[in-house]
Design goal:
- By secondary structure, the chain is α/β, with parallel strands linked by helices.
- The protein has helices at about 10-15, 15-25, 45-50, 60-75, 85-90, 110-120, 135-140, 160-180, 185-205, 210-220, 230-250, 285-295, 310-315, 330-350, and strands at about 50-55, 80-85, 100-105, 125-130, 145, 225-230, 250-255, 275-280, 300-305, 320.
- It has a 5-stranded parallel beta sheet, sandwiched between helices.
- Helix 11 links the parallel strand 6 and strand 7 (about 250-255).
- Helix 4 runs parallel beside helix 8, helix 8 (about 160-180) packs antiparallel against helix 9 and helix 10 (about 210-220) packs across helix 14 (about 330-350).
- The structure holds fructose -6-phosphate (F6R).
- Fructose -6-phosphate binds next to helix 4.
- One of its GO terms (cellular component) is cytosol.
- Catalyzes the first step in hexosamine metabolism, converting fructose-6P into glucosamine-6P using glutamine as a nitrogen source.
- It is an enzyme of class 2 (transferase).
- This is Glutamine--fructose-6-phosphate aminotransferase [isomerizing].
């Protein structure tokens, strides 16, 4: 049942290329230049009337939502807010009939996410669900459903569900852009072409998994570490940090790289591991200067950058190159090394990788 892998988590990490392909599937037209989302029943007029988007989810799905905000704002130019479902419910969010609420849930049964969906509907908003379970509560109650075809996810730590949620956001963002005319057809075709190359690029990263076994063995003896990044790299850093905490029980914090000097830099001391994500070309120089700040205080820095870049090499202790893609698409690649790092760190510490302590796969209580 684990298809030759020692744990479900590793099997599911390796199923990501297939999950990407299945989630894109027939949603890209035969010419490969645009997105077809027949499951979205919203009319052009309804899409045109959207004034703001609220993305609501928990945990890893919330982290996918943070990437989703970037995607929708960049492609469709609609303002997006992202909330943790257990907060959204109780903060009297301003929801109008022109608000589109997107709920994200692998299981489709998370109590707080479902309650947020109901609150959104009560206020007259239209709800789109991104879920991995056809026929789940969230799928049944939403107005429109985008199913992620990741297949059953058994390991408590979410991997392929998160990345297929990202793919769903790319498709949805492109679909909104096509409908609203916020991006030119040629630009959309270019993004679609790059999207289709992601599965092969994930496979290339998986072929280098040993690198992250090595990194994990170096961090496994530490009790604290940091993930830093800017922009989309920060969103991915949050997910990498959650994954590591969840299964290795090593405490980590994800920080927006430019925010460190406003307090957290005080925690950087000799030998502390820092995982620096620097895949976003236009932010590279700024991130490098933040890396220098932690290096100067004795941190051991592991860097992730886009293939072809050279600037990070001198600034960090160890570096891994992510296959080149559009900066907007890089989260779908750069999270994979962090999943592998968490997996191997959990293994190195002798933990139960698939069933971490205190946690359940589906959180149906508030
Ligand atoms: C972490 C993880 C959780 C879930 C969260 C939401 O690896 O799996 O943070 O993402 O409990 O679950 P769903 O997506 O089923 O609503």
């Amino acid at each position: 049942e684990k298809a030759g892998f020692d744990h479900f988590m590793m099997k599911e990490i390796h199923e990501q290329p297939k999950a990407y392909r299945d989630t894109m599937g027939s949603r890209i037209d035969a010419s490969g230049s645009k997105v077809v989302l027949d499951e979205i029943k919203m009319t052009e007029e309804q899409i045109g009337s959207i004034r703001n988007v609220h993305i609501v989810a928990c945990g890893t799905a919330y982290h996918a939502g943070l990437v989703g905000k970037n995607i929708i704002e960049k492609l469709a130019r609609i303002p997006v807010e992202v909330d943790v479902a257990s907060e959204y419910r109780y903060r009297s969010p301003i929801i109008t009939p022109n608000t589109l609420v997107v709920v994200v849930s692998q299981s489709g049964e998370t109590a707080d996410t479902l309650a947020a969906l109901r609150e959104a509907k009560r206020c007259g908003a239209r709800v789109v669900a991104i879920t991995n379970v056809v026929g789940s509560s969230v799928a049944r109650e939403a107005d429109d459903v985008i199913v992620t075809w990741a297949g059953p996810e058994i390991a408590v730590a979410s991997t392929k569900a998160y990345t297929s949620q990202l793919i769903a956001f790319y498709l949805f963002g492109l679909y909104l852009a096509q409908t609203l005319g916020t991006q030119e057809a040629g630009y959309i075709a270019g993004v679609v072409a790059e999207l289709k190359q992601l599965p092969d690029k994930v496979e290339r990263i998986l072929g280098q998994a040993e690198t992250f076994k090595d990194w994990a063995e170096q961090v496994a003896s530490h009790e604290n570490l940091f993930f830093i990044g800017r922009g989309l790299d920060y969103a991915v850093a949050l997910e990498g940090s959650l994954k590591l905490k969840e299964i290795s029980y090593i405490h980590s914090e994800a920080y927006a790289a430019g925010e460190l000097k406003h307090g957290t830099l005080a925690l950087i001391e000799d030998g502390i591991p820092v995982i620096a994500l620097a895949t976003q070309e236009e932010l590279l120089e700024k991130t490098v200067s933040n890396i220098k700040e932690v290096k100067a205080r004795g941190a051991h820095v592991f860097g992730l950058h886009a293939e072809g870049e050279t600037e990070l090499v001198k600034a960090v202790d160890q570096v891994f190159s992510i296959p080149h893609t559009l900066p907007l698409l890089s989260p779908a690649l750069s999270v994979v090394p962090l999943q592998l790092l968490a997996y191997y760190a959990s293994l190195a510490r002798g933990n139960d990788v698939d069933k971490p302590r205190n946690l359940a796969k589906s959180v149906t209580v508030e």
